[in-house]
Amino acid sequence: MSKKSKVLIIGGGAAGLMASIAAQLNGAQAVILERMNRVGKKILATGNGRCNLTNVCLDIKNYHSSNIKFVHGILSRFSVEQTLDFFNQMGIEYKVEDKGKVYPLSEQASSVLDLLRYEIQRLGIQEICEAEVVKIKKDRKKNNNAFTLFLKDGRTITGDRVILATGGKSSPNLGSNGSGYQLVIPFGHKLIEPFPALVQLNLEAWFLKRLKGVKFNGKAAILDKDKFLRTEEGEILFTDYGISGPPILQLSRKYGELLHKKNTRPLISLDLYPDFSKEELKTKILSRFYYHPEKTIEFAFVGMINKRLIPVVLKEAGLNDLNIICKDIKDKEVDNLINLFKDWRIPVKGTQSWMHSQVTAGGISLEDIHPATMESKLLPGLYFAGEVVDVDGDCGGFNLQWAWSSGYIAGESAARTIG
Predict the structure, then answer these.
(1) What are the residue ranges in the chain where pLDDT is below 70?
(2) 357 and which of 199, 211, 298, 391 could share a cystine (Cβ 3.0–4.6 Å)?
(3) Is the dihedral angle over the CA atoms 109, 111, 114, 115 positive or is it negative?
(4) Within-domain flag for 259
């Protein structure tokens, strides 16, 4: 019998943990090297601490990459159904919530990490923490122990295959700081410039401090050169720097793309009353004015709009005199208000930092990676998994599914291709 081959996994996040289990199950000796003091820190933060495992409504339209066909192939090779079976066999009971989001029945991300770590220990996978890899070297003259990893503290570790699962640049406090890119660029791998995604937006507006903490259920749309590119609906939150909430996070990826282009000034369009048409809204407003003609324009909207929002939207609509009474409001001013309520356009000047983003857009190009195995075309024996490559998904479990799928395929392939 030949001795087990060693697969070194750089990164102990979702993709790295899955890759280690897949490699071990397929006959290799897996070793996880994690630069933080424990593995899986980012898993604990997913789904607001509940861990949005995956999404049963998975569609390739929920993913972004320069090679979507590549992404579709990997997701098909280790599917949502296989993922759910995998976790169910480990002990995770799950439930499906709105829009296909899957959560553990325990509602605890910690239970997912606990069971992953239990499986790692049960299988005999070696876990080395506080092990920051700074260089990968391959000795092409040897058949065994072909790779040497150099650690920041001076240690070295050798193995037969390497899986890079270091993540992107998002949430560096949880382990991913972009250092993985520099490990493979020397071998010729190209980097598609990363930028934060699933992140809050910075707005260019005078009223932000006044509206900090104001929430409303509405629609938000990306607007570029008078063209609406995408619309999302849900709870939206004003902050002192701009705007947040699930719809904003979903739109932020496209804003990141636009903000990297020249000669563009993207806007966000807000619909404060998505359940009403302009005509219905006009009827409602004129009715309020008719029954209380003596009220000031500002007080007339109490009970209909958040009180802190009223003076801001009135001024944005051109009604600077807040004490004008309802019977003196002109038809044109009513139309301006309705247009603002349904299409309030505010310039977007940027996104929040990497520290606040949930995922990284961009990363190592898929051009030099085999679409069936996640193996490098430039350095045989090197594999990729997770967010380190140019793949990112929408909010709702899609990014974790990419981690599970790419991690499993990389781990399985790394183990099986060793002679």
Answers:
(1) 1-3, 141-145, 417-419
(2) 199
(3) negative
(4) yes
Spatial strand order of the sheet with 133-138 comes to: 133-138, 147-151, 156-159
Taking the C-alpha atoms of residue 122 and residue 24, their distance in angstroms, rounded to an integer, is 11
E-assigned strand segments in 125-214: 126-129, 133-138, 147-151, 156-159, 161-164, 191-197, 201-203
Shared domain check, 67 and 163: yes
Q: Looking at the structure, do residues 21 and 71 belong to the same domain, yes or no?
A: yes
Distance of alpha carbon 202 from its chain centroid, rounded? Answer: 17
Q: How many CB atoms lie within 10 A of CB 214?
A: 17
Residue type (1 letter), 137: K
Name the residue type at position 291. Answer: Y
Residue with tokens 């070297």: 137
Sign of the dihedral through C-alpha 117, 121, 124, 125: positive
Q: Are 159 and 8 in contact (CB under 8 A)?
A: yes
Summarize pLDDT for 128-166 with one digit per residue, the tens: 999 999 999 998 765 556 899 999 999 999 999 999 999
Specify whether 77 is located in the same domain as 128. Answer: yes
Find the domain containing 109 and state its range: 6-195+357-416
Cβ pair 214, 238 in contact under 8 A: yes
**CA torsion angle 230 231 234 237 (round to 10):** 70
Residue among 391, 382, 388 nearest 410 (CA): 382
Treating both helix axes as pointing N-terminal to C-terminal, what angle do 398-416 and 80-90 enclose, rounded to 10 degrees?
80
